[in-house]
Amino acid sequence: MDALQKKTTRGFSLLETVAAALVLGVGTLAITRSFTVSQQELSWTRSHAIARNLMRQRLADFSTKPVEELPACAGVPGCRLSRTEMASELGVVGSFACTQYSDGRTILPDSGASTSEGLFRIDTLVEDHPEIARFPTGHLLTVSVCWRDQHGAIQEVRSRQVVLSDD
């Protein structure tokens, strides 16, 4: 009887070891996957915050200018045609490029032609106010910022602001 008791109380069986390794492996895989998803979300959130900051900077730059100094940038609002395709660049009005690019760190100058070197594309449209009878000197300013995410999809943030003359 002593030999039988000794045999049943010795260590773990191979089946128990395999089961424990499987549970540990599944747990490790879940933690790794969670970390990867968190990193992707953090990257998207960072890009989104940079794009919104660029958009706010552009709106602030234009809201401090007199209405008569605003460039007549025309076109279709938005720099994204589809999930994978950018819209055509807007033109240049005087010395102002209506489509500009940024690496996200620099404030864009108001002069020079656009270069497609930056990670973020900024489109600026200045149109007459849609209710021109009520606001004859009013303009509608639309700023769109686009970038490609880590999967290659084009993301966009856009804001509109009314700019009225002091008259």
Describe this structure in words.
This protein has helices at residues 2-8, 14-63, and strands spanning 92-93, 96-97, 99-102, 120-128, 139-148, 154-163. It has 167 residues and is of the alpha+beta class. It has one domain. The strands form two sheets. The protein has a four-stranded antiparallel beta sheet, covered by helices on one side. Strands 1-2 form a two-stranded antiparallel ribbon.
Main structural class: alpha+beta
Please state how the strands of the largest beta sheet are arranged side by side: 3-4-5-6
Low-confidence stretches: 110-114
- N to C succession of SSEs: HHEEEEEE
Average pLDDT number: 79
Helix content: 25-40%
Give a short account of the largest sheet.
4 strands, antiparallel
Number of strands: 6
How many helix segments? 2
Q: What separation lies between the terminal Cα atoms? A: 107 Å
Number of domains: 1
* Strand residue percentage: 15-25%
Measured on Cα atoms, how large is the radius of gyration? 28 Å
Sum up the overall morphology in one term.
rod-shaped
Question: Care to give the gist of this entry?
Answer:
By secondary structure, the chain is α+β, with helices and mostly antiparallel strands. 34% of the residues lie in helices and 22% in strands.
Pick out its properties.
167 residues, four-stranded antiparallel sheet, 6 strands, alpha+beta, 22% strand, two-stranded antiparallel ribbon
Helix-strand blueprint:
Elements: H1 2-8, H2 14-63, E1 92-93, E2 96-97, E3 99-102, E4 120-128, E5 139-148, E6 154-163
Antiparallel strand pairs: 1-2, 3-4, 4-5, 5-6
